[in-house]
Each structure stands twice: as structure tokens, then as C-alpha cells.
């Protein structure tokens, strides 16, 4: 507030004070004659008027003021409940996102542990090539007769399996 507004407010309060003192004089009362408790009540009333901006504390104005405040209270209650609901929804979404993050972190950890470095892959390739070379050397060391006929060998194995299966059937019949 600037000085002009303050001066105007002081003038209005002075006029109001004069008006109240004049009304008290009509009834033959002076402010200094009033009891201390009544003066405190007047101070509270003035403070209430200042806070609520109600200059006329008549029952109709008080009811109107009460209804306005009650409406504000209900609207604020509705806003609070709406915001609480939104907060709960957001908290649920946050929990869902945190669970998904934990799952993704676990997946990343599993992938990291199962992934092999480039050096490990090269070492594995070298090991496999060594095993192949060893197997080729062992294969070359095994002496094979020159007159080996694989077809005859397969036929002999088939005949032996047939003979063994017949023998087994005969034993089962005897029992």
C-alpha cells in the first residue's frame, strides 16, 4: 500500500470511530466507562472485521460470509481429494516403473555376465582349432587296412544285431 491509501484508510477508521463514539454518547456511555472485558470484545470484533473485510456484522452479512467460506472449504476439500487420488495414481505408476527398472537392471546384469569379451571369444576359437588339429592328428595315426570294405563291415554288424535279437527272443520264450 502506498501512503495515499494508508491515509485514506486512517481517515475512514477515524470517521468510523467518531460515529461509534457518537452512538455511544446517545445512550449516555463513554468509552472510558466501559468494562475491560467489553473493550477486549470490541477489539476482537474490530480485528474480525479487518480480517474478514466485513464492515457490517449483521446476521445476513455473516450468513453470506459463512456460506462463501463453506463453499470455499468444500471446493478445497474436493481439490484435496482429487489431488490425493492423482498422487496415489502417480505413486502406483512410479512403483510400476521402478519394478520395470529393476527387471531391466537384472536383465542387463544377466546379459553382462553371459557376454564374453572379444579376447575370450578369440581364445575359444583358438582352443577349438587346437582340438580340431589334435583330432586330425589322431585320425591320421590310426592304421586302417587298405582292403577295408565299409559296406561289408555294415552288413556284418547288421547280421550280428539280428542274430543277437533272435537269441534274446529265444531266451525270453524259455522263461
Oligomer: single chain
Count of alpha/pi helices: 5
Domains, number: 3
- What is the overall silhouette? rod-shaped
- Unreliable spans are none
Mean pLDDT: 84
Please count the beta strands (DSSP E, at least 2 residues each): 0
First-last Cα distance: 121 Å
Q: What would your notes on this structure say?
A:
Helices cover 83% and strands 0% of the residues. The model has no long low-confidence stretch (mean pLDDT 84). The chain has three domains: 9-56, no CATH class; 58-115; 117-175, no CATH class. The protein has helices at residues 3-26, 36-52, 59-114, 118-141, 150-174. The chain is mainly alpha-helical and 175 residues long.
List keywords for this structure.
5 helices, 175 residues, mainly alpha, 83% helix, 3 domains
Give the gist of this structure:
This protein has five helices and no strands. The protein has helices at 3-26, 36-52, 59-114, 118-141, 150-174.
Give the helix/strand layout.
Blueprint: H1 3-26, H2 36-52, H3 59-114, H4 118-141, H5 150-174
Amino acid at each position: 500500500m502506498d501512503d495515499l491509501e494508508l491515509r485514506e484508510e486512517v481517515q475512514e477508521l477515524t470517521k468510523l470511530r467518531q460515529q461509534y463514539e457518537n452512538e455511544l454518547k446517545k445512550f449516555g456511555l463513554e468509552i472510558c466507562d466501559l468494562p475491560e472485558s467489553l473493550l477486549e470484545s470490541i477489539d476482537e470484533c474490530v480485528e474480525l472485521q479487518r480480517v474478514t473485510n466485513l464492515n457490517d456484522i449483521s446476521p445476513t452479512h455473516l450468513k453470506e460470509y459463512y456460506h462463501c467460506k463453506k463453499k470455499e472449504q468444500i471446493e478445497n476439500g474436493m481439490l484435496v481429494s482429487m489431488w490425493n487420488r492423482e498422487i496415489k495414481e502417480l505413486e502406483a505408476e512410479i512403483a510400476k516403473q521402478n519394478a520395470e527398472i529393476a527387471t531391466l537392471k537384472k536383465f542387463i546384469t544377466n546379459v553382462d555376465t553371459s557376454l564374453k569379451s572379444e579376447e575370450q571369444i578369440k581364445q575359444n576359437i583358438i582352443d577349438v582349432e587346437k582340438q580340431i588339429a589334435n583330432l586330425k592328428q589322431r585320425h591320421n595315426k590310426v592304421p586302417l587296412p587298405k582292403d577295408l570294405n565299409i559296406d561289408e563291415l555294415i552288413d556284418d554288424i547288421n547280421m550280428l544285431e539280428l542274430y543277437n535279437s533272435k537269441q534274446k527272443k529265444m531266451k525270453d520264450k524259455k522263461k
